[in-house]
Amino acid sequence: MNLYEHTIIARQDTSPSEIKQLTEKYSKIVEKNEGEIVKTENWGLLNLSYLIKKNRKGSYIHFKIKGKGNVVEELEKNEALDKRLLRYLTVRVKKFDLETNYFSKKENIEKKEESKS
Description:
The chain is an alpha+beta fold. 35% of the residues lie in helices and 42% in strands. The chain has a four-stranded antiparallel beta sheet, with helices on one face.
């Protein structure tokens, strides 16, 4: 089984309920193709580095997936047709970092560091 980190960027005008629908839709596609979602993170609405299809911001959803190559092929085939998405990216990794949450609020990160001390 290969390990993948997969991120999708939805349009900025996508509602929270639509974000949830997108997450469920792509989770089902992974499971249908004998893959496993290890973790799903909703990073929220973030600024884009440059305009993409006239959007300055995008809603980011990040998946950590275990599966074979056909899982990624099927995901990307469906995402290419989805008008609500701006971009998607899949990266194959050697192991998952399940500890760090890179897009949490700074206050939460500081509290975690204090508790470790």
